[in-house]
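User: Let's play a game. I give you a shape written as tokens, and you guess the letters that built it. Ready? Here's round one.
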């Protein structure tokens, strides 16, 4: 059910001030899920020209009090890093300060470009995340570690995350002792999620997949098939982390599918749909998902996210909220 704001106040974010409450509201655990982040090309050039803080300044206040902040980081840093045209990407280490500014502590590594410049940048970037208190999942230094779930605990809430890459189009997936993203295989994914559910029967399980890319609001049949299977295996929420263009939201058997949140920190501004996005506030009471509140965004001329105008937000809602997906 949707919890209504009263006088602009949310029971989740403004619990002590919320007018319609009893003596107190429970302590909700706040998890923010974001879309595609690739600190490269024109986003990187914007950070060079305007300072790293410019990338987060318009949305930073939304992130300061969350218990967990997720990003799906698509690009490793190299030295030197020269931003080029095309799709061979590098990041500058200094630009990773944007993640610290946003209080990021959960980093997804299912992306396609983290090994564009080889293994060493992946290793250095992976170590940087952990040295700065950021947990990783969906990728690792070996094939086995890439498939390890991430277990988070706070305020009596336990959240378990597991991530996969569907197609590995750039040979970016881990194999044996080679690092990279966690390759999706249907049997492996079923077994992994089933094992998580057995080990943590009361936890909230989030399964993410870097799907094949499509510039459409509707998910592909492959996306739907895999997301449904992950939920049937025991996941509580399925998320498509690949989506540069925002995609539809769906409920299935009382569980949530976020097919794609669009770009978060990336430079794609050449089509209307690629500039649209949102990040999702997930609020937990214990291990139960008590509510979700999206914040809609727009990639502006500085190649960074800004809060969407009311008109822009309405356009995103009309694209991703379909009655036949939400009410069934």
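Assistant: Ready! My guess for every position:
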């Amino acid at each position: 059910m949707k919890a209504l704001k009263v006088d602009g106040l949310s029971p989740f974010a403004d619990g002590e001030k919320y007018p319609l409450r009893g003596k107190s509201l429970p302590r909700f655990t706040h998890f923010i899920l974001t879309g595609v982040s690739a600190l490269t090309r024109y986003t990187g050039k914007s950070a060079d020209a305007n300072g790293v803080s410019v990338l987060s300044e318009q949305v930073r206040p939304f992130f300061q009090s969350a218990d967990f902040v997720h990003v799906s980081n698509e690009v490793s840093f190299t030295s030197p890093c020269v931003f080029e045209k095309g799709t061979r990407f590098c990041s500058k280490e200094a630009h990773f300060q944007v993640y610290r500014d946003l209080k990021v502590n959960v980093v997804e590594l299912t992306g396609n470009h983290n090994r564009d410049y080889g293994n060493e940048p992946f290793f250095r970037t992976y170590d940087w995340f952990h040295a700065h208190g950021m947990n990783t999942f969906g990728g690792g230094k070996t094939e086995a570690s890439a498939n390890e779930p991430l277990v988070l605990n706070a305020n009596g809430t336990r959240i378990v995350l597991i991530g996969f890459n569907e197609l590995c189009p750039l040979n970016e997936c881990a194999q044996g002792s080679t690092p990279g993203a966690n390759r999706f295989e249907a049997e492996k994914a079923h077994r992994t999620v089933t094992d998580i559910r057995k080990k943590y029967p009361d936890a909230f399980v989030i399964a993410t997949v870097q799907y094949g890319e499509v510039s459409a609001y509707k998910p592909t049949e492959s996306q739907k098939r895999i997301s449904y299977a992950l939920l049937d295996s025991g996941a509580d929420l399925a998320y498509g982390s690949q989506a540069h263009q925002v995609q539809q939201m769906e409920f299935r058997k009382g569980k949530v599918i976020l097919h794609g949140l669009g770009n978060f920190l990336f430079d794609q501004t050449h089509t209307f749909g690629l500039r649209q996005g949102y990040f999702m506030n997930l609020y937990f009471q214990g291990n139960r998902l008590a509510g979700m509140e999206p914040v809609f965004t727009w990639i502006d001329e500085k190649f960074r996210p800004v809060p969407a105008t009311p008109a822009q937000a309405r356009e995103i809602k009309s694209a991703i909220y379909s009655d036949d997906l939400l009410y069934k």
